[in-house]
Amino acid sequence: MAWVSSFVLVLLSVLSFVYLQSVEDSTEETRDIVERKPDYFIENMRRISRTESGEIKNIVLSDLVIHYPDDDSTELTKPYMEIYSESKEPWKVRSISAWIAKENQEILLEGDVNLWRKDKKGDVIYTLNTEKLKIKPEEKYAETSSPATITTPESVTNTLGFKFFFENGRIELSNRVRTRYEKK
User: Using only C-alpha atoms, what is the Rg of the chain?
Assistant: First the structure.
């Protein structure tokens, strides 16, 4: 019976050692993430991207831009964007923060995200509000799975998620869609 007690103690010791090693490994991984260091930052940034023919493709402004070399990502504070399409007024986007993936493949906007367009007279004709929005700039496409409100001069629509195409202003509503029409 003494050998069973000894075996149990040795087994518990080995399991404790393995557990402590895994905790130390995860602590080191967390420390690596926490210790991310930027290689540069820009205050009050303004960037204009143009097509090959010289027309404005998009404009990005931000109070603060921080770049991280480990994954070539960029964080923006209070970003504002204008996304242009052929012969139409630009789509405008604002949020509290944004994260841009390597090579600008996708932009994740968070916190009070507003997307809108004005007509040539300056009147807002279309507004989308949500808390999170993913934009794929090269595809001129955006999507969210978060609750959203879409407002036009004639209606207010609430939805759980949408897909949006900047080029033609087409929107695909995902779930729990409710629209209220307002007579003007």
Answer: 24
Closest CA to 49 of 11, 23, 82: 82
Quickly count: other Cβ atoms within 10 Å of residue 54's Cβ. 6
DSSP string over 103-131: GGS-EEEEEEEEEEEE-TTS-EEEEEEEE
CATH H-level, domain 40-181: superfamily? Lipopolysaccharide (LPS) transport protein A like domain (2.60.450.10)
174: number of CA atoms within 13 Å, CB side?
Answer: 13
The CA–CA distances, whole Å, from 56 to 42, 50, 79 equal 22, 4, 18
Per-residue model confidence as pLDDT tens digits over 28-70: 555 555 678 999 999 999 999 888 888 888 899 999 999 999 9
Cα–Cα distance measured from residue 111 to residue 95, given in angstroms and rounded to the nearest whole number: 6
Extents of the domains making up the chain: 1-35, 40-181
**Can you give the pTM of this predicted structure?**
0.75
